[in-house]
Amino acid sequence: MAKTVVVLGTQWGDEGKGKIVDSLTERADLVVRFQGGNNAGHTVMVDDKEIILHLIPSGILHEDKLCLMGNGLVINPKALLEEMKELTDRGIRLNNNLKISKNAHLIMPYHLAIEKEKEAQKGKKKIGTTLRGIGPAYVDKMARIGIRVVDLLYPDVLREKIEANLTELNPVLSKVYGAREFDTEEVFREYMEYAEKLMPFIDDTDIIVNEAIDEGKKVLFEGAQGTLLDIDHGTYPYVTSSSPTAGGVCTGAGVGPTKINTILGVVKAYTTRVGSGPFPTEIKGPFGDEIRERGGEYGATTGRPRRCGWLDFVALRHAVRINGLTGLIITKLDVLDGIETLRVCTAYRYEGELITEFPKALNILEQCEPVYEEIEGWTESTRGINDFNKLPENARRYLKHIEDTLGVPVDIISTGKKRDDIIILKEHFE
Ligand code: IMP
């Protein structure tokens, strides 16, 4: 039995990780987020009520679980405080159960401003980001001018860094983009207010998580976004700016690779993508719209309609490899109920040639045509089924086909939105 389990996305995010993490959390002691920021939207159903978390690990909905926000995150303190308030308003207690890494980076108001201008300037080539300032915050981190959570504890350091950053950025904002400049004192005062409220939660999360692992506690690492949005392994530049893949767990939480036991990849039974960029198996037209409606495929963070398409084994094989997946979690199986013939993409065709590996060059990927295999669908409803043997035969065949093609076992299947709509074929924590 594993002690440390990673749950991450294998597609372009929105695979339904929130619900899975929520379910696995029941048996975990700690839940750790290791990358991204409030670009994520993890939807969890509790007593028929929908809760959407953007920053705080979904584990917070369970009492007595410790939730860590690792160093790999970029945190907008305003958004975090709003999320904390929403939770406390719903009666969820926040005190010693939430810790924020000192090394996580802060999203500053000027990150949102510059992202808005840069995206607008790109016109047709825009990435279609969530406009939460994620990219610019990671840019500053890599440029070594970022402001970290720990800086909130040292007002002089904080002021100095804000000033240095604004000295460089203000002329760009006003002269290049004709946008408004920021005032150092104003930003500083705003962030000092956040500092006061967040101070009790700031900690050395790397030490906490490693001590917990050494004590034999069960730790769940909660990924946001997905493999194809990874800055290194995704469809660059149409990606997010963090590492949602397995390697990101180590750098983003401060945990060595030898300490990770199990890596579960969440695979939606079909594929979706929000924002721009290539998507070979996209279904355009009314059928794509139908899947969107059936699956409620609208962004949890931005409300944008998601592009929908068939399952793509070329992309999934890439995800299996990059992440070293040990198990698969198939979600939203019920959305495919009643579709007469399902399709799965086994290869791409590019200039008459068959390609079976996910291309690195975007200009090639953009021109790839999917090669499909057809699979007979099922007419019965799978919604809410908890027993694998009660699934329609063709649904079981579809799952077996995924398992065989990818060479990784299907450990969990989600058959609906509710907490109980789940089939657990393998337990990961004792
Ligand atoms: P950013 O993360 O806001 O910079 O956006 C970069 C790309 O990642 C855009 O295509 C977004 O739509 C996508 N993205 C970011 N977060 C999520 C997510 O949680 N789910 C799905 N797509 C996301």
How would you explain this protein's 3D organization?
- The radius of gyration is 22 Å and the shape is globular.
- It contains twelve helices and 20 strands.
- The protein starts with a strand and ends in a 6-residue tail after the last strand.
- It has two domains: 320 residues, 3-Layer(aba) Sandwich (Adenylosuccinate Synthetase, Chain A, domain 1), CATH 3.40.440.10; 96 residues, Adenylosuccinate Synthetase, subunit A, domain 2 (Orthogonal Bundle), CATH 1.10.300.10.
- By secondary structure, the chain is an alpha/beta fold.
- The strands form five sheets. It has a ten-stranded mixed β-sheet with strand order 9-7-5-2-10-1-11-15-19-20, with helices on both faces. Strands 14, 16, 17 and 18 form a four-stranded mixed β-sheet that branches. A two-stranded antiparallel sheet has the order 3-4.
- Helix content is 32%, strand content 20%.
- The structure holds inosinic acid.
- Inosinic acid (IMP) binds next to helix 4.
